[in-house]
């Protein structure tokens, strides 16, 4: 009887453990809160945070030549 109770308890505990889904090209994990060593980059499909190691987050670089400007002076 004790063995059955132990097996039942272990199986229920294992059923509660869910594997984290991957995001951001499999470099991040979908979690409700990110670890201290991770940063929140974008949202997963179920609105959890995609937690990524900061070294994998792309850095925006400045362009040397502007390709276009939104500030055009139009005469009405």
UniProtKB/TrEMBL annotation:
Coiled coil: none
Top-level lineage group: Eukaryota
Span of the signal peptide: 1-20
InterPro entries: Beta-defensin (IPR050544), Beta_defensin_dom (IPR025933)
GO CC aspect terms: extracellular region
The keyword Lyase appears for this protein: no
Keyword terms, alphabetized: Antibiotic, Antimicrobial, Defensin, Disulfide bond, Secreted, Signal
Record-annotated Beta-defensin domain positions: 23-51
UniProt subcellular location: Secreted
Primary role: Has antibacterial activity.
The protein's name in its UniProt record: Beta-defensin
Organism from which the protein derives: Panthera leo
